[in-house]
Design a protein that fits this description.
Strand order of the largest sheet: 4-3-5-12-6
Strand content: 15-25%
Protein name: LysR family transcriptional regulator
Structural class: alpha/beta
Family: Belongs to the LysR transcriptional regulatory family.
CATH topology of the largest domain: D-Maltodextrin-Binding Protein, domain 2
InterPro entries: LysR-type_TF, LysR_HTH_N, LysR_subst-bd, WH-like_DNA-bd_sf, WH_DNA-bd_sf
Number of domains: 3
Number of strands: 12
Radius of gyration: 26 Å
Keywords: DNA-binding, Transcription, Transcription regulation
GO molecular function: DNA binding; DNA-binding transcription factor activity
């Protein structure tokens, strides 16, 4: 196999020029002269046997061959930087990093306060909470817009790095004065009650299975409200005589806060695994590894409590 006469600096220059679409701007970003940038482009054109970038009035325009090469060249450069360059350990005491975490409203309630409490010793660290959506999440993880996601998205587990955190169960939430508390909650009484059903909508979350099971078993007239938010649904359940089927993590958070009682769910709704997701690109990144360890430890301590 004959390899092209290319080094990592040339490949990096290719990516910068692809992004800037202007020789002067690309050379300034790389800290080299425009003449050196032009010589590098000549070498790239020879190696790829393609013009790669066509001059225009405003700069240059990538050719179809250049578009095709961006993904593999990016992968090569990132892999080399990740595996070959010296790794700087992550130090939370000196870092001012803002970590972006995508989670459902339940995940935000359970995870974010715990992380903020844990990180009070490191005042420079900050967090950005983002809502989950399976449609945008893979790209957000790939681009770095999201550092880590927490949820239950089985469709993602073959394409994204993941780690199981714990197994979640469903329970029922009702207000403390709800008449349904007058006797044990049997399946028959459950089916006769009024309900709030949380909709997974376009999120692609595994809760969609529970949603479909509930809508398939309950009379249409019994479903008084559907909502995309577990937290909003819990607040409404605390003000009405409706039953809300929700993950036990939400029950632990709202119990004692909102006048809600927790009951076992009389239906055979399957439990599900709550999983942490991240992209292969940051698998060895010290800051991301530190965050993942912190999240795993936070859930482990919460389960043990």
């Amino acid at each position: 196999m004959r390899l092209p006469d290319l080094d990592l600096r040339l490949l990096h220059a290719f990516l910068v020029l692809y992004e800037q679409k202007n020789l002067r701007k690309a050379s300034e970003e790389l800290g080299i002269s425009q003449a050196a940038m032009s010589r590098g482009l000549a070498k790239l054109r020879l190696a790829f046997d393609d013009p790669l970038f066509i001059p225009t009035a405003r700069g240059v325009e990538p050719t179809p061959r250049a578009h095709d090469c961006v993904a593999p060249v990016t992968e090569i450069v990132e892999l080399a930087a990740e595996r070959l360059l010296p790794t700087v350990p992550f130090d939370p005491e000196t870092s001012d990093r803002q970590f972006s975490i995508a989670a459902s409203d339940v995940g935000e309630l359970v995870l974010i306060p715990e992380l903020m409490r844990t990180c009070t010793a490191w005042p420079g660290l900050r967090f950005n909470a983002q809502r989950l959506s399976i449609k945008s999440l893979p790209e957000e993880l790939k681009s770095g817009a999201v550092d880590v996601a927490v949820g239950a998205f089985p469709a993602l587990e073959n394409a994204i790095r993941c780690r199981r955190l714990y197994t979640e169960q469903y329970v029922c939430l009702v207000r403390s004065g709800n008449p349904i508390l007058s006797s044990p909650l049997t399946q028959a009484r459950f089916l006769e009650a009024s309900h709030i059903v949380v909709s997974a909508g376009v999120l692609g979350h595994i809760h969609g299975r529970a949603e479909q099971a509930l809508l398939g078993m309950l009379p249409a007239s019994a479903v008084k409200l559907t909502s995309p938010s577990f937290l909003l649904s819990a607040m409404i359940a605390s003000e009405t005589d409706c039953v809300l089927v929700a993950p036990s993590a939400l029950a632990r958070f709202v119990k004692g806060r909102c006048g809600l009682e927790v009951l076992p769910c009389p239906l055979g709704i399957d439990p599900f695994d709550v999983v942490m997701y991240w992209h292969e690109r940051v698998h060895h990144d010290p800051a991301n590894r530190w965050l993942r360890t912190l999240i795993a430890e936070s859930f482990a301590s919460d389960r043990a409590a």
